[in-house]
Amino acid sequence: MSIRPSFRLACALALGLTLAACGGDSTDSASEDTAAKQSDTGAEGSDDATSDDAASSEDMDDMDDPGSFPVTVDTAAGEVTIEEQPQRIVSLSPSATEILFAIGAGDQVVAADAFSTYPEEAPTTDLSGYEPNVEAIAGYEPDLVVISGDTADLTASLEALDIPVIDNPAPTTIEDGWDGMAALGIATGHPDETADAVADLRQQVEDAFADAPEGVEGLRVYHELDDTFFSASSNSFIGDVYAQFGAVNIADEADADGTGYPQLTEEAIIEADPQLIVITDQVSYTAEDVANRPGWSEVAAVQNDNIVTVSADISSRWGPRLPQLVSTLADAMTQVDEPANG
After folding, report:
1. Cα(159)–Cα(179) distance, rounded to whole angstroms?
2. 176 vs 160: CA distance, rounded Å
3. Sign for the pseudo-dihedral over CA of 104, 317, 13, 186
4. Which of 41, 201, 253, 325 is most buried per CB count within 10 Å?
5. pTM of whole model > 0.90?
6. Digit-coded pLDDT (tens) for 72-90
């Protein structure tokens, strides 16, 4: 049977989840080091929400037994058929690892990549999603592998070994993310738990946005990923958080191709005069180092000491900790001394 994630969630539990339509981005243009630091940035689009209206009668029948197998799941890389509920999952995506544990599939995860540091019980190994070793992955005898981007034709290599692969990249918007979570719920046999988790996360995110004070609209923001000036534009879920606050993302002008993660120049950053600069705790430099960059002394964020360091894990990973990201960025924007129209 072929199940569309958004249809399964909306109908199986009648939660009325409004899942987003299409969109996509990729971090292929970013440096490999930046990609490794950011863990799970980059995405392909999810199914158009209107496709739910065209769900087949077979889908309707399957709603009565949402955990039945085999299932064919629509993913970023196309349809993937899973014959039986996976019992040995290898996750090569930190975001996917967090999601799997959040939806009740944690006990099925036998190995996770080196960047999967959360939750504590995750079976972190030295596996890599950026330099995948097919033999090492296969050594865990997985019946499902979850990735975030098909590096080195990993999908084809694993499928040749009859190992199904779910490509679950980071979404381009907050709304797009629910479909990716739904796909993992269906693929692992946990659609009910996933629907509950999505509903809860949705409410937490809405509450976090609602709690944000007024005054951040129009604030000029620069979210720096590394010292080569890659940034997160509004075509990424990170940038979508800023957009929903009404902030002005200075990276948008550089993202003509809609990758979500454009590389800026120092000249462009200085000219854009951001009022808030956000860096992560995974870079090898500090807020003070940023402030001391030649030519940056006239930037509003530098003059007003508005350079904030946030957790890279929370800020770069789509998943259960998204409400923390919204709250963290809300706090950072609220503390900006200079008025938004300054």
Report:
1. 23
2. 30
3. negative
4. 41
5. no
6. 998 877 899 999 999 999 9
